[in-house]
Design brief:
The complex is a heterodimer of chains A (50) and B (392). Chain A is an all-alpha fold and 50 residues long. Chain A has a domain of 31 residues. Chain A is built from 2 helices and no strands. Chain B has 392 residues and is an all-alpha fold. Helices cover 73% and strands 0% of the residues of chain B. Classes of the chains: A mainly alpha (50), B mainly alpha (392).
Chain lengths: 50, 392
């Protein structure tokens, strides 16, 4: 049932500029931050666990 | 209040716990580092069970016992003369557990609610559908029975536990033992799915609920607006869970199906069910609609195929209504979708009989008609959900 590993030969793993990585990482950080701050309103248990 | 996926839409389930994210990080690291397929499968199963232990505590013991029984029953499917007996046995036990999960009756009769707590904690509605899927795959001889780690990983993947998606067993069994490495762009895309899901759930859905939703207590035009906003809230909330599951699945290299595809673009109800809770509609098609339709066609070969298809749709959505909740609202919701889907089928058949292919193509390309049909479809879906909340 266990299948062998899939192969990737077509493209390099680094396929994006550093600037885009930085910008998109910042965007992800902002979204998670906003969700974390508002999560207290939606679910107070979230904060109590930290 | 339960809505959208049956479970998980109203409150933050699991994704607001520290252990969900702890297991997620451990999963991403372990499942990307390990390149030996069996080891990776067992590591993934260990993490899923660890998550269940966080959720259930000692209640994990009866769950493991039930899982072990299921494991041995599924292995017996290889003996053809046992298949019918096993199918009936698994269907009976799983259905009884499902009813216990959905109805307070069993819990009250038993005098305590531990069974219901257990079933609710593991999102048994979704586990139930996966059990049916794996049993049917084995019944049809579509592959060997799953090993213990595979069974755990298929039935209770921690990231798909709260609100799906419902993975097809064939898709699960087909995935590579070790996934392809992610490129930087793919990693960022997957992380964005997770972050976007969290933003949708905790910011957008929360804002819509706070500003527009009054539990359908509004009057006049505000009531009409609230019905629209209820659907928007359901979408934001429910699809957020799917986004998080899909994103985490990609980061860990675990196949996780898509569940939504811009439902506001649906031009009719058939199209709607290819865009809303896709994994459920595909499950219904695989395990209810097609088997019922084929069975009826074999038994009654002279009956009108449209009548048979209509009956199959009716039964399928009656069951889908029950799956969502044992309440008049969900039953009416199922009936509304069944009637709507039959109407679309009849209308499509009528058009094809009376119009040439060129005329039908022109009809499909008409932008005004497209706009009207999209609005009518989404309105119908919104009213069906509002009925659920009004009759809850």
């Amino acid at each position: 049932m266990f299948r062998p590993a899939a192969q990737r030969t077509d493209e390099p793993l680094r396929d994006i500029s550093r600037a885009e990585v930085a910008f998109r990482s910042l965007l992800i950080f902002v979204q998670i931050g906003a969700a974390y701050l508002l999560a207290e309103q939606v679910s107070p248990f979230f904060y109590q666990q930290f | 209040m339960q809505a959208g996926g049956g479970e998980g839409a109203a409150n933050a389930l699991f994704i607001d716990t520290y252990y969900f994210w702890l297991i997620a990080i451990a999963g991403i690291v372990a499942l990307r580092v390990l390149t030996h397929a069996p080891t990776r499968q067992y590591a993934w199963a260990t993490l899923n069970l660890l998550f269940l232990w966080f959720v259930l505590g000692w209640l994990i013991v009866p769950l493991l016992g039930g899982g072990a029984v299921l494991f041995f029953l599924l292995r017996d499917y290889q003996r053809p003369n046992h298949r019918l007996f096993l199918t009936v046995l698994i269907a009976t036990v799983a259905s009884a557990l499902f009813l216990a999960h959905k109805s307070a009756f069993f819990g009250h009769v038993g005098g305590d609610l531990w069974l219901q707590q257990l079933l609710a904690a593991v999102g048994f509605s979704f586990v139930f559908l996966r059990i049916v899927d794996v049993a049917r795959a084995l019944q049809d001889g579509r592959g060997p029975p799953p090993g213990p780690a595979e069974l755990v990983n298929y039935l209770v993947p921690f990231h798909m536990l709260a609100a799906g998606p419902i993975q097809a067993y064939d898709d699960f069994a087909r995935q590579p033992g070790v996934p392809t490495p992610l490129t930087t762009r793919e990693t960022l895309d997957a992380a964005q799915r997770v972050a976007g899901g969290l933003f949708k759930k905790f910011v957008l859905a929360y804002a819509v609920r706070k500003v527009f939703l009054t539990d359908l207590q509004a009057d006049g035009i505000w009531f009409v607006l609230e019905v629209q906003m209820l659907l928007l809230w359901l979408y934001l909330d429910f699809s957020a869970y799917s986004d998080i599951a899909v994103g985490l699945g990609r980061l860990m290299g675990v196949a996780t199906p898509e569940n939504f595809d811009r439902p506001w673009l649906s031009r009719n109800l058939i199209d709607f069910w290819d865009r809303w809770h896709i994994s459920l509609s595909h499950w219904i098609r695989r395990n209810l609609f097609i088997p019922i339709q084929l069975n009826l066609m074999r038994r009654y070969p002279r009956t009108d195929p449209v009548l048979i298809a209509s009956l199959a749709i009716g039964v399928s959505f009656f069951m889908a209504g029950i799956w969502h909740g044992l309440s008049p609202g969900w039953l009416l919701w199922g009936a509304m979708h069944a009637i709507g889907l039959v109407a679309v089928r009849l209308y499509t058949g009528w058009l094809q009989k009376r119009r040439s292919p060129a005329e039908i193509a022109a009809y499909r390309d008409n932008r005004i008609l497209l706009l009207v049909s999209r609005a009518a479809t989404i309105e119908y879906a919104a009213i069906a959900f509002a009925v659920v909340f009004m009759l809850k």
